[in-house]
UniProtKB/TrEMBL annotation:
Record family assignment: Belongs to the G-protein coupled receptor 3 family.
Keyword list, A-Z: Cell membrane, Disulfide bond, G-protein coupled receptor, Glycoprotein, Membrane, Receptor, Signal, Transducer, Transmembrane, Transmembrane helix
Keyword Transferase: no
UniProt-listed InterPro entries: ANF_lig-bd_rcpt, GPCR_3, GPCR_3_9-Cys_dom, GPCR_3_9-Cys_sf, GPCR_3_C, GPCR_3_CS, GPCR_3_mtglu_rcpt, mGluR
Name of the molecule in the record: G-protein coupled receptors family 3 profile domain-containing protein
Membrane topology, record value: Multi-pass membrane protein
Originating species: Lottia gigantea
Length: 762
């Protein structure tokens, strides 16, 4: 080859594929009709990828062809995600154990790479198959071989069973029928110009043309390559030999046509006067364009390399029992490379596997441990499989699907009317609203009767308003959150309860002040005990809560917010914290505590004032309800259903306690014991009403002007009163009476020593 370089003689090869030959600084005059090894290396990588062989072994001959070819394969494979498990070389000098050791090295340590990519000459390919057969390892791995194996008979001869399934590649070719016709008509008599043909003849017919001992003599004319028993098959490189000859001839023809125009093919005379240089001929060869023997164009690139497509073969057993290379696909270079494989032509039940690690299941990422090996790590919690190697958290408003392949947006959730969580508190509050409305109707209808008039109607109506609002708060709390609903929640929750407990605080405070006044009450009436004063005090107390709620709305605008505490949905809530909700209820809790204290202090007033006992029972029950609510609410672990339901039920139960404890006795008398709801003329000898308060006993009287309905006759007070269940009530709207809880108040000018009791029915 260097001689050609020195003499500037162009050379065209039909089979040399080494990548080094593309180096024009060393091999300037070298061209070839076959592509260099880098192209078949790319084809082999694409085949491995197509079979999902991402972990392979490589085997190469020492020397330029094997080392450069396998080196190019490993370079492209690394970029393509195909890893090499073991890279072995066949030394130039081999012995009987060389190939056995190579096979053992490939299989040792339970190597999971079951594919071997080979850049090995045909003799060593044959030796590999022979060693596999000897070791009985014929099905241990699959072979992907380069064009040095191609579609040749020699590597597989006598080892067809071992070679079955082998994948080989070869620059695209076809059988040249014209060559077969020519070659089969050759005999040792008409082809004596070829000194090797006689040797070929003896090998094909297993005979001798000379008197060789132990071999039969060839009969000459009786032998023919057309004989069906002759194992004749066209060599795979025949096409490329023909193409290289035609390419050289075409280059010479083009050069002569250019250098010697008008000579009408009489080039010899022209060349006598104009000898041509090899460098000039090289230029014409590189520009040759002709149709090859298989119909594909024969062209050269700037390095003199042939541009060819590749045929892909599999060595298969045919139904007849014979073995043959079957074309299963092709690799096409047309600007970009593309691979086409006909899966139906493959003679495999299942494509052999050559991997380092098993594929990961759904929702598992590959954690690489080196090369192409990995561990499968499941994506955690709210993570999805971003790519095969990484898990990533889903956005706050999303959750991974069952396979953890994508993030699905969570549905927005709030309590639906069909939910049991919605139905129970609404039903409870609905019944409460109906009961409240019924009590209100009864009070309005019997508004002028003694029992209703004597119970402090104004505060009772405020109480009923608070109870009604408390029940209504549940509907607001359970409605779909919006800016308006969130504002109503903040105001309604505090104000509704405040109406109840402000009215009760006003009542209990009034009773306490009256009975705690002692002897002073005989001289001066306690302040702010009139009905109008009581209403004003109650409204002032409620106003504090109302103004506080408005202030809260000013500092923290009502709005909705999405919570992602749950795994299956987005919770639509009002924008407020648990602490803010408790702070808004703190004022009501303060009033409840005060009211409870007053109820406790007035628990031992005379029997005639037993409404104070009902109030005390109401407050004790309320405290129990709220003490039970607080741990449930804060222990809900941000479960919005428990939070909202516990709050609704707490408010509704508090309203129910007030409704039944304070109003049920009065409704019972009005509806079921109307005979007690009448006025009686009672002459009462006013005795000291003993009330043990703070370990003291007071003589309690109401030192007031003589109220309407009081008659003094012969030193005895006669007063028309409504007496019910030992409880004596007076109409709270009577400005002349300050003791609406049934106090009989003598005028201070009476002679208390002459008072006697007499009662006559009116």
């Amino acid at each position: 080859m260097y001689v050609h370089y020195l003499l500037q003689i162009p050379q065209i090869s039909y089979s040399s594929t080494s990548g080094d030959l593309s180096d024009k600084s060393r091999f300037e005059y070298f061209s070839r009709v076959v592509p260099p090894d880098q192209y078949q290396a790319q084809v082999m990588v694409e085949i491995a990828k197509s079979f999902k062989w991402d972990y392979v072994n490589t085997l190469a001959d020492e020397g330029n062809y094997g080392e450069r070819g396998i080196g190019k394969f490993e370079e492209i494979a690394k970029k393509s995600g195909v890893c090499v498990s073991r890279s072995l070389k066949i030394p130039r000098s081999v012995n009987t154990t060389t190939f056995t050791n190579i096979i053992n090295d490939i299989l040792k340590d339970n190597n999971t790479a079951k594919a071997v990519v080979m850049f090995v000459n045909e003799d060593n390919c044959r030796s590999i198959l022979q060693a596999l057969k000897k070791m009985n390892k014929t099905k241990e791995f699959s072979i992907l071989a380069s064009d040095s194996w191609g579609a040749k008979i020699h590597p597989v001869q006598d080892h067809e069973t071992v070679a079955e399934g082998t994948i080989t590649i070869l620059p695209k070719r076809r059988v040249i029928k014209e060559f077969d016709y020519y070659f089969r008509n050759l005999t040792v008599y008409n082809n004596q110009r070829n000194p090797w043909f006689s040797e070929y003849w003896e090998t094909i017919f297993n005979c001798s043309l000379t008197n060789t001992p132990y071999r039969k003599r060839c009969t000459g004319m009786s032998k023919s390559l057309w004989n069906p028993d002759v194992n004749y098959r066209q060599e795979g490189l025949v096409q490329f030999v023909i193409d290289s000859v035609y390419a050289l001839a075409q280059g010479v023809h083009d050069m002569l046509s250019y250098e010697c125009p008008g000579t009408h093919k009489d080039f010899s005379r022209c060349l006598r006067y104009r000898p041509l240089a090899g460098e000039e001929l090289l230029g014409f060869i590189r520009n040759v364009k002709l149709n090859g023997s298989n119909g594909d164009p024969v062209v050269f690139d700037e390095n003199g390399d042939g541009i060819r497509n590749y045929d892909i073969f599999q060595f298969q057993r045919l139904p007849s029992g014979n073995f043959e290379y079957v074309r299963i696909g092709e690799g096409v270079f047309n600007g970009n490379f593309s691979l086409t494989l006909n899966d139906t032509s493959l003679n495999w039940e299942d494509i052999p596997r050559s991997i380092c690690s098993e594929p990961c299941s759904f929702g598992q990422a590959k954690k690489h441990t080196g090369g192409c090996c990995w561990m499968c790590v499941p994506c955690q919690g709210n993570e999805y499989l971003q790519d095969e190697n990484n898990c990533a958290p889903c956005p706050k408003d999303s959750r991974p699907n069952a396979n953890k392949s994508i993030c699905d947006r969570l549905p927005e959730f709030h309590l639906e009317p069909s939910s049991l969580w919605f139905i129970l508190p609404v039903a409870f509050s609905g019944v409460g609203v109906l009961c409240t409305a019924a009590v209100l109707v009864i009070f309005i209808h019997f508004n002028t009767t003694p029992v209703i008039m004597a119970c402090g109607r104004e505060l009772c109506y405020l109480l009923l308003l608070g109870i009604f609002l408390s029940y209504g708060t549940s509907f607001v709390m359970l409605a779909k959150p919006s800016v308006i609903m969130c504002a109503l929640r903040r105001l309604g929750l505090g104000v509704s309860l405040c109406f109840i407990y402000a009215a009760l605080l006003t009542k209990t405070n009034r009773i306490y002040r009256i009975f705690n006044s002692g002897i002073k009450a005989m001289v001066k009436r306690p302040g702010y005990t009139s009905p109008k004063s009581q209403i004003l005090i109650c409204i002032c107390l409620v106003s504090v809560q109302f103004i506080g709620g408005l202030t809260w709305l000013g500092f923290e605008k009502p709005d909705t917010v999405q919570h992602y505490d749950q795994n299956d949905y987005i919770v639509l809530k009002c924008k407020s914290s648990q602490i803010a909700t408790v702070i808004s209820l703190f004022y009501n809790i303060f009033i409840i505590v005060l009211c409870t204290v007053y109820a406790f202090k007035t628990r031992k007033i005379p029997q005639n004032f037993n409404e104070a006992k009902y109030i005390a029972f109401t407050m004790y029950s309320t405290c129990i309800v709220w003490l039970a609510f607080i741990p449930i609410y804060f222990g809900a672990n941000h479960d919005f259903k428990i939070e909202i339901i516990s709050l609704c039920m707490c408010v509704s139960i508090s309203a129910t306690v007030a409704l039944f404890c304070l109003f049920a006795p009065k409704v019972y008398i009005v509806l079921l014991q109307p005979h007690k709801n009448v006025r009686q003329a009672t002459s009462t000898s006013i005795q000291s009403a003993n009330m043990k308060n703070n370990s003291r006993t007071y003589g309690v009287t109401c030192a007031l002007p003589l109220p309407t309905g009081i008659l003094v006759q012969n030193g005895t007070i006669h007063k028309e009163v409504a007496q019910t269940d030992n409880a004596v009530f007076s109409d709270s709207m009577e400005d002349t009476s300050s003791c609406d809880e049934g106090l009989s108040m003598p005028v201070p000018t009476l002679n208390m020593n002459t008072v006697t009791e007499s009662t006559t029915a009116t």
